[in-house]
């Protein structure tokens, strides 16, 4: 499925970036998208690119409902641009020097330029979605799609706020965590599916079923992401598996462990998470506690449950067999992926 | 004119900020808009607020063409939010600790939160303009208005790039400078007028005449701003008049002086602008050179010319007498203002 939409999505993105007039912001943007090196030379292998999950979901939802893929291209590109803009700003916020094994935009060009590169990518996302009106999307649908995307992006910011708030806390319930990821990651994934569906049909119930599918998909995706952030293979994920613990990130395994641990384990966790910096043995101790509490198994169970709920959300919608098959493959891939 | 639209504009803004779910981002946003102190207490005097120039222009253009002011409110609020978001990010970029005699958002809440507060204000701007569709604006017009705003904002970013590029250069022509300010400040001012007109009429020539009016108005506004940044009254403007020179800002007086100076004055300027930090006597020397070259008079001439061109741009449009009178007052105010 990812391969099928690749060319169209790339075409949509290439219609926006580089953008005439944005001068030397174009290289940081192309670099961040994995297209060029820091000097603007086209990358030999596009290995550093992301999965393009969101635009793929948008295109798939549109095709699944018999929509015109050509009309979905600019929205799909818009979503990918909004997602990537948020990553550029996230990296500034979190002071992350690396992403996907590469130095981040701010760490090469400095914070002021990275900030503006992010702002401009966000703006190109807005513009891309509005361009849909030139591809035959009706103005009413274009407004609706813009709204879904803008509101989804606002939810993403809410999620970032919640996540920042978690940093200072040691007790976070699983429900609070699930609400946070539903906003921070889930909203844009849901939007991708919802927009694809909205472009292809006018039945609010069908679009809402797809939105719900996207919601559960987003949850499965994020919990898997959190799992991989602790127990994943560093080479496959492009992230240091230690970093989530070392950075005392309140991802699912940590939330779970802080919630469930008792006795000495609980004391250790609270002591370790109260420190500014973690030693190697701190990181090891946290991992041991997580293992003892069954955190990896519990994370996997939550992922599987969310994956099932995603599939169920589409049960009432009349869909061709190939769509059901691909839904199953997609859900399976997101729940089991190693990268 | 500013007083006439004040309540409506404030109502439009209050419909967006504070925004449910944005939790502790709401206080930095309200604080930046001059509504509250840093603890979220409503400000006793709204003295720290800006002029609300852009939303006022939007409302005025709409009313001048007999449009429905109620339909312009959400667009006017959107423009003010986009403008203010850009200020929050500008302050981070420029590391400015004060704006309008108050500590800037990043200097109180830190860069990460200021970055997200800016992003969320931008998003609320996007959302506000889309909400116009609920106020009776047709979807086609809503898409058009969104596009004007998004493209204008993109031009603003282009202007920021050009401005950043100027920092490293000592030779900048007046034309290059005028192009930079046409993007950086002019675009959003032009948009304000253009959007107000687009909401009130369907004649592209009329809207384009208003856009051109906005362009010249923006130029007059910015050159006056640059003038005040060097020769203005510190108390009235809320900016330190020394700061533009001390920070070696390539505003109009500096561009003009670097372009026109010769002999010893030229050598002095190049020496001073090549330094990392300027002493009091450096600042004085620069001001003396600017005076000797007639920079203040030239800046005033350019402002007056732009103001005249602004008025001329509307000459061919059929407008009631009260509109012409208010155009004259507005142009006069922007060209002569002391704050």
What does the model show?
Two copies of one chain form a homodimer. By secondary structure, chain A is mostly helical. Chain A folds into two domains: 167 residues, Farnesyl Diphosphate Synthase (Orthogonal Bundle); 137 residues, Farnesyl Diphosphate Synthase. In chain A, 72% of the residues lie in helices and 1% in strands. Chain A contains 16 helices and two strands. Chain A has a two-stranded antiparallel sheet with strand order 1-2. In chain A, a hairpin with a 2-residue loop joins strand 1 and strand 2. In chain A, helix 1 crosses helix 4 and helix 4 runs antiparallel to helix 8. The longest helix of chain A has 29 residues. The first copy, chain A, is globular, with a radius of gyration of 20 Å. Chains A and B meet through helix 4, helix 6 and helix 7 of A and helix 4, helix 6 and helix 7 of B.
Put the structure in a nutshell.
In chain A, 72% of the residues lie in helices and 1% in strands. Chain A has 16 helices and 2 strands. In chain A, strands 1-2 form a two-stranded antiparallel sheet.
- How many DSSP helices of chain A? 16
Rounded to an integer in angstroms, the radius of gyration calculated over CA atoms of chain A is 20 Å
Q: Alpha-carbon distance between the termini of chain A?
A: 17 Å
> How would you sum up the major sheet of chain A?
2 strands, antiparallel
Number of beta strands of chain A: 2
**Biggest interface: chains and residue counts?**
A-B, 43 and 43 residues
> Strand pairing plus helix content of chain A: what structural class?
mainly alpha
Average of pLDDT of chain A: 92
Strand share of the residues of chain A?
under 5%
> Which strand order do you get reading across the main beta sheet of chain A?
1-2
CATH fold assignment of the largest domain in chain A:
Farnesyl Diphosphate Synthase
How many domains comprise the coordinates of chain A? 2
- Globally, the shape of chain A reads globular
Given this structure, which CATH class of the largest domain in chain A is correct? Mainly Alpha
